[in-house]
Design brief:
Elements: E1 3-11, H1 16-31, E2 36-43, E3 50-56, H2 59-71, E4 83-93
Antiparallel strand pairs: 1-3, 1-4, 2-3
Pfam family, one: ABM
Protein name: Antibiotic biosynthesis monooxygenase
Organism: Streptomyces endocoffeicus
Length: 95
């Protein structure tokens, strides 16, 4: 069963480009991990949210990659210094 996520992030407008650049750095690191399938970095048309997506071969592969993202500072507990409101993360399983 594949495992994935969709995360909505809300960076301050003055930090949006910096936030997107950091997301791309994390995405590139994820691409190198075992069990990785895909990753995406999106911005809503109104520019309010940065949306990240990821898909993995299994939940274990995701958890290993999430550990890497945490080491890179991409998944802090609470808000990052660039965000104005808490992120919303939704986990997904294939059926």
């Amino acid at each position: 069963m594949s495992f994935g996520f969709v995360a909505f992030h809300y960076p301050a407008p003055e930090h949006r480009e910096e936030f997107v650049a950091e997301c791309h750095k994390v995405a590139e690191a994820m691409r190198q991990q075992p069990g990785f399938v895909s990753v995406g970095v999106w911005v809503t048309p109104d520019g309010v949210a940065v949306v990240t997506t990821g898909a993995y071969e299994s939940e274990d592969a995701f958890r290993a990659t999430a550990g890497l993202a945490r080491e890179m500072g991409a998944t802090p507990d609470g808000l990052s210094d660039l965000e104005v409101r808490p992120r919303e993360v939704h986990f997904l399983v294939s059926r």
